[in-house]
Amino acid sequence: MRSNRLAVFLLIACLLNCRPSYSQTDPLITLSEKDVPLQKVLDEIHTKTGYAYFGEGDWPKIAHKVSISVRNASIRKVLDTCFFDQPVLYELDEKERFIFVRLRPKEERKVHGWIVDENRDPVGGASIVARGDVSGVSNDDGEFELSTHFSDSKLSVSSIGYEPQELPLPPSGKDITITLRSRTKALIEAVVLHTGYQDVKRKASTGSFDEVDNDLLNRRVSTNVLDRIDGVTSGVLFNKNIVTSANQSAITIRGRSTIYANPNPLIVVDNFPYPGDINNINPADVESITVLKDAAAA
Questions:
Q1: I want to staple 224 with a disulfide (CB 3.0 to 4.6 A). Which of 105, 106, 218, 279 is the partner?
Q2: Residue 79 near residue 90 (C-beta atoms within 8 A)
Q3: Which residues in 85-242 belong to E strands, given as ranges?
Q4: Buried b (16+ CB within 10 A) or exposed e, 135-172
Q5: Where are the alpha helices (DSSP H) in 192-279?
Q6: Is 76 helix (H, G, I), strand (E, B) or coil?
Q7: Which of 290, 232, 246 is nearest to 265 (CA)?
Q8: Which of 235, 209, 234 is nearest to 288 (CA)?
Q9: Cα–Cα distance between 168 and 153 in angstroms, integer?
Q10: CA–CA separation, 36 vs 45, rounded Å?
Q11: What is d(CA 240, CA 249) in angstroms, rounded to the nearest whole number?
């Protein structure tokens, strides 16, 4: 009888020793994402750690996009980064290994203030958005008022002719004055046409023209300017098989304008006519090209 008990005891001890051991330590997470939905990050966390997730309401549509870059970080640190400044919260159950996403409790909060420019003049018609919640528009005096529900919302302010701004909400009950910086240079470039001899306002110009900026000019790799604008501007024809004795030009802008005179178009570089070969101009030195295509060019 004693031998049977001893055999059973040894068998139980052997089974206990043979049971697989599971580590209770969560694996460290290495993750790098930029401007992706929160749900996508949680999917990756589930793949890397086995943590399941679920939530209440329509939280995937409410949650802001996430940008994160971590290496060998704990799951709690990753979640703290992902849920920072979100309209949703998370609860982590390490024992059951799941993540519960819930909506942040709503809190009525008044935001009152003024929007002015660099000269302290009021900016009317500016758009004010409490991210993830409500939006409004400033009046003629630059004054605005919002009622937001998310205490962690940020204010996004924008207006035509000014640089947009994003800033945190002010403390409860405290007014805020937002100063917008003007985009004068960008506006000047948008309304002015450079003809080579003079700068003309677009509204005052009656001619037809095409502009090739530096970004468009550098899309094609070539050692001369003509190859870079070939096929970019309308109405400009590049004659690659010309007969020099026939008084022909390598460039034709909306057809030929003369029979016996010089058929080459006028090239103006920095307000001065350029009589040389345009292929001798280094494309890296060219900021922009304006092609005047009708009688107004004269």
A1: 279
A2: yes
A3: 88-93, 98-103, 109-116, 127-130, 135-137, 143-148, 154-158, 165-168, 176-179, 192-194, 199-201, 209-212, 236-238
A4: ebebeeebebebebbbeebebebebeebeebeeebbee
A5: 214-217, 225-229
A6: helix
A7: 290
A8: 209
A9: 7
A10: 14
A11: 9
The conformation of residue 20, written as its DSSP 8-state character, comes to P
Q: Rounded CA gap, 236 and 254, in Å? A: 6
- Closest by CA position to 290, among listed 209, 216, 183, 191: 209
Residues 284, 228 contacting (CB under 8 angstroms):
no
Burial, 110: exposed, middle or buried (Cβ in 10 Å; 0-12, 13-18, 19+)? Answer: exposed
| pTM (global) more than 0.70 | no
Q: In this structure, what is the dihedral angle of CA atoms 85, 90, 92, 98, given to the nearest 10 degrees?
A: -130
Token duo for residue 171: 């403390």
pLDDT in tens, 121-138: 999 989 888 765 667 889
With contact defined as beta carbons under 8 Å apart, do 54 and 100 qualify? yes
- Please list the pLDDT of the chain residue by residue as tens digits (298 residues): 444 444 444 444 444 444 433 345 678 899 899 999 999 999 999 999 999 998 887 888 888 889 999 999 999 999 999 998 787 889 999 888 999 998 877 667 788 899 999 888 999 989 888 765 667 889 999 999 888 766 556 788 988 888 888 887 777 778 889 999 887 655 555 556 666 666 666 656 666 777 777 777 777 777 888 778 777 777 777 776 665 556 677 777 776 766 666 777 778 888 788 888 877 888 888 888 888 777 666 6
Q: Where are the beta strands (DSSP E) in 117-227?
A: 127-130, 135-137, 143-148, 154-158, 165-168, 176-179, 192-194, 199-201, 209-212
pLDDT in tens, 154-185: 788 988 888 888 887 777 778 889 999 887 65
